[in-house]
Amino acid sequence: MRLKKGLSISAIALVGLLGLSACAAETDTAEPGVEAAVPEFEAGTTMADLAEAGSITIGTKFDQPLFGLQGPSGGPVGFDVEIGKIIAASLGISEDNIEWTETVSANRETFIENGTVDIVIATYTINDKRKEVISFAGPYYNAGQDILVLAGNPEGITGPEDLEGKAVCSVAGSTSEANIAEYGVDLITTDTYSNCLEPLRSGNVIAVTTDNVILAGLADQNAGEFEVLSNPFTEEPYGIGLGLDDDAFRTHINDVLEASYDDGSWEAAWEATAGAVLKLPAPPAVDRY
Amino acid sequence: MDAISNAIDALVSITPLYMQGFLLTLALLAISGVGAFVLGVLIAAMRISPVPSLRVFATVYTEILRNIPLLLVLFFCAFVLPILGVELDFFLLAALGLTLYTSPFVAEAVRSGFNGVPVGQAEAARSIGMGFTQTVGLVIMPQASRMVVPPLINVFIALTKNTSVAGIFFVNELFKATYAAARDNGDVVVLTLVYAAALYLAITVPLGLIAGAIEKRVMVLR
Amino acid sequence: MSMSVLYDAPGPKTRRNSAIASVIGAVAILAGLTWVFFILAAPRVNANGAEQPGMFDPSRTDILSDPQVWGAFGGAVVETLRMAGVAAVLAILVGILFSFGRTAASKWVRIPTSVLLEFFRGMPLLLMILFVFLLFSTGSYWAGVLGLAVYNGAIIGEALRAGINSLPKGQREGGLSVGLTSLQTRFIIEFPQAFRQMLPIILAQLVVLVKDTSLAYVVAYPELARTIKNLQNFYGSRYLFTLFAVGFVIYLVMNVTLSYIARYAAKRSGPKLGKVTPDNPKVPGAEGTRAITMPRGRSGYRDNSGGGFS
Question: Name one GO biological process term (chain C) (predicted).
Answer without folding.
Answer: amino acid transport
